[in-house]
Amino acid sequence: MKSGEEQSDQDRPSQLKGWFDNLQQESWQLELLISGFAIFLLIAGYESLNGLNGLVQRLLLDASHWQPLAITYYIMRTAYSVLITSLVIHVLLRGIWIAAIGLRYVSGDIDYAALGYRPRYTRFLRRRIGSFDDYLEKLERLCSVVFSVAFLIIFCFFSVTAFGLFTTSLQFAISWLFGQEVHQSGLFSGSGLGRLITLPTGILFFIDFITLGFLKRNRYTAAAFYPIYRFVGWITLANLYRPLYHNLVDNRFGRRLARLLPVFVLLAMAAVSVQYVNGSFQPEYARDSHYAIATNNYDDTATDLAAQLHRPTLNSKYPEHDYLELFIPYLPSINDPVIRKIAPTLTETAYPGVKLRGGIYAGRMFNDRADYPATLAAMGRLHRVFLNGEPTRAVDPLFYFHGGREQHGLLYMIPTHRLPVGKHTLRVESRTSSRDTTAWSGYGNIYFYK
Predict the structure, then answer these.
(1) CA–centroid distance for 330 within its chain
(2) Cα separation, 442 vs 332, whole angstroms
(3) How far is CA 10 from CA 22, 41, 197, 269, in A?
């Protein structure tokens, strides 16, 4: 005779199955609760997420090795929109399902004979719709799968984020091992070598994912792909979604839906990218600067911080005093190579990279022996300022930190007391690095009025 403990161990699987079956029948309530709460939180947080675009653009202007992190941000912002869309679709489908259940209680099954249709239509409807209970079952299954797929999609985007962060960390590690020069772009530099290591393996992993495991099934690729599968799976946190993914693709309905996932994601990305041009003669302000006033050229009218970060700006198009404040940002990824060419012996004033300040103190940020006058003179040679077509050679810039843009740069105080009343034009040209030489390139015109 079996003891009570052994009998309890044998009954546990059946009890667990019964608990799962009961929970599955009542899961629609949890789905609706989670979907509604998640939609509310996601919509409330979208503005904050979108506001990080300025920070991402600032990092890209600092150095090119931030590109994987920037790509990760834009992928996650798209995933945010995709998740909201998926959950809204789920709530709508669940609403239809609940309405259908209420109708089933009132009206019962579909009585095709009572409709009085001709036999051809009756046969078509019986074949396509079947009984109303079959329709309810299909709708229930679709709702549950859509809910699971919504979180499967967001987990996949989390994996892409983890992959981007790993690539960025690898690039930083390579840059730290080989010196600051590898911060520059190039196949065998810190940025290029990190991508050279991770990008091919990531592409193979993605191909296997969207083909539902083709590389794992094929006898010619399975053995070679196994280390890549383990490696990329580890850095992308694939264990978060693998149970959902494999449980989805192990049946015909799930595989059909999984094949549509890339299409759904592309449609969602297209939906959030839609823009409308509302006039046949509307100018492109970034291009036609000779004939238009761009609001982002002025601090007091700027509407897009990310669009301001790379351009010189005035504090206002209407200077209140006899001096015009022109701020030209310091763009390390563009300016540093030029400074190294025009002043090769100049000592660096700061040590770029990640430092620790707070509970842990590590890394030097600034060079105490830097020659600030020489640095300012070198940075002043980066730009040429033209007022009404004439160079302003007598104006010397000073270092300046723009609080609104949270950006370092140069501030030019241009006297305007001798200018006549009316419209005036300001134009900035900056040096860019071109192989062994430098070249001048101009920004658009900035207009101001006295």
Answers:
(1) 24
(2) 18
(3) 20, 43, 51, 50
Q: What stretch of H or E contains 159?
A: helix 132-178
Contact indicator for 219, 142 with CB cutoff of 8 Å: no
Q: Tell me: the pLDDT tens digits for 205-264?
A: 888 888 888 899 888 888 989 998 998 888 888 888 888 888 888 877 777 777 777 777
Please work out, in degrees rounded to the nearest 5, the angle formed at the alpha carbon of residue 172 by the alpha carbons of 170 and 178.
Answer: 100
Question: pLDDT per residue over 145-188, tens digit each?
Answer: 888 778 787 787 788 888 877 877 777 777 667 654 444 444 44
Contact indicator for 323, 299 with CB cutoff of 8 Å: no
Radius of gyration of the chain measured on its C-alpha atoms:
31
Residue type, 146: V
Residue 439 DSSP one-character state: E
Q: What is the pLDDT of residues 100-136, one digit of tens each?
A: 888 887 878 888 888 888 889 888 888 888 888 888 8
Q: What is the mean pLDDT of the chain?
A: 79
Closest Cα to residue 410, out of 352, 328, 302?
328
The residue ranges of every structural domain in the chain are 21-272, 295-449
For helices 27-51 and 67-107, angle between their N-to-C axes, nearest 10 degrees = 150
In the block, tokens 């772009």 appear at: 185
**CA dihedral of residues 182, 185, 190, 194 (deg, nearest 10):** -170
